[in-house]
Write a structure and sequence with these properties.
about 350 residues; alpha/beta; Rossmann fold; seven-stranded parallel beta sheet; four-stranded mixed beta sheet; 12 helices; 15 strands; about 20% strand; globular
């Protein structure tokens, strides 16, 4: 009999590699799908080969495949070969800025790739748990309609009822998404439909800033990771709009994978959850620059562009109440300083071997 296995797409990326490590460490056979498209999207700085090689050296039961999620037949072949009982779908084109340059590729990877995996799951392992890493960009710029206060280093919500951040009732239509946000909406809604219409064990996680030491951060994706890289390389960091006071909440990749695991133990078909660091792990661009300078002892050179990125959030904090209510055994375990410490140490370790050109 073919042994059961976990499938992780985007297995050389930040969340994917964390999932590989976590489930391999818990004695599961893990099949990884990743064809290093991050290098195609972002050039050499986005190359994830270093992470794949690290996983191949250190994992016990990890089987990697360089398969494109757009290739339906190759995906179906994998599902014929293995008995998956958990699918963790992390593969994506992740940048809303990059999507405008490659709209067809962006949609094919994010929307069609997700549909291929959902249908493969339905046909070959319909009782499996399927978790989709979606994004808070499905809300477009609707979160910017909140009232804000401006403080010396950040924006924050003006109304007390918004203190915990954006919850899942925020609308996802009639708003400017970016093309990336639109392709992720398509994937998000399709995943919901497979859960609700077919009754499959599908969960959708709308991530905030997901981060950690395995991030191949680039200017267009990977806020904290890229900012740390800038500190060590002496590059110039560009702050786009809002006087650098835009706020993001940051969650460590380990806490993301733990949330996926909790869902897998007791899946709620077609349910959506916001997943981020919450208020305690929120930080503005200006605050992040100062914090990283203090922690590295290096001055970050940065310039300011008045025009904000299209659809960018002024202040986005993930309201975690819904997930914490449904899954009370889960909580945030990594605070912002510990996250930054890990990223800084990883950058020091990998600088001689990782491409940072």
């Amino acid at each position: 009999m073919i042994p059961r296995a976990t499938l992780v797409t985007g297995s050389s990326g930040l969340i994917g590699s964390e999932a590989v490590e976590y489930f391999d460490g818990h004695g599961r056979r893990v099949v990884g799908v990743d064809n290093n498209m991050r290098r195609l999207f972002f050039g050499p700085p986005g190359d994830t080969t270093w992470n794949l090689e690290r996983l191949k050296r250190s994992m016990k039961s990890f089987v990697p495949y360089a398969v494109d999620v757009r290739d339906r037949e190759r995906i179906f072949d994998l599902f014929r070969e293995y008995r998956f009982d958990l699918i963790v779908h992390c593969a994506a084109q992740p940048s809303h800025d990059k999507a405008r340059e490659i709209p067809l590729l962006d949609f094919e990877v994010n929307a069609l790739g997700t549909l291929n995996l959902l249908e493969a799951t339905r046909q070959f392992c319909g009782d499996a748990v399927f978790v989709l890493m979606s994004t808070n960009k499905v809300y477009g710029d609707a979160p910017n309609e909140k009232g804000f206060q401006e403080f010396p280093t950040r924006f924050d919500y003006a109304n007390p009822e918004d203190f915990e951040g954006i919850d899942e009732t925020c609308r996802i239509d009639r708003t400017l998404h970016s093309l990336f946000g639109a392709s992720k909406v398509a994937a998000d809604v399709m995943a919901q439909e497979y859960g609700r219409y077919f009754g499959m064990k599908v969960g959708i996680f709308r991530g905030g800033c997901l981060t950690g030491p395995s991030h191949s951060g680039v200017e267009l994706h990977g806020f904290l990771s890229y900012l740390v890289k800038v500190a060590f390389t002496g590059r110039v960091y560009t702050v786009y709009g809002y006087r650098g006071k835009q706020v993001r909440d940051n969650i460590h990749s380990h806490d993301v994978v733990r949330a996926l695991e909790e869902f897998a133990k007791n899946p709620r078909p077609g349910e959506v959850y916001n997943l981020g660091g919450g208020r305690r792990n929120s930080i503005s661009v200006l605050e992040a620059i100062t914090r990283i300078e203090e922690m590295t002892g290096r001055k970050i050179c940065w310039i300011y562009e008045e025009e904000a990125r299209k659809g960018d959030h002024i202040c986005y904090i993930s309201n975690l109440r819904k997930f914490c209510t449904d899954y009370p055994c889960w909580s945030i375990t990594r605070n912002l300083d510990s996250i930054l410490e890990e990223i800084i140490e990883a950058e020091k370790m990998h600088r001689p071997s990782r491409s940072i050109a």
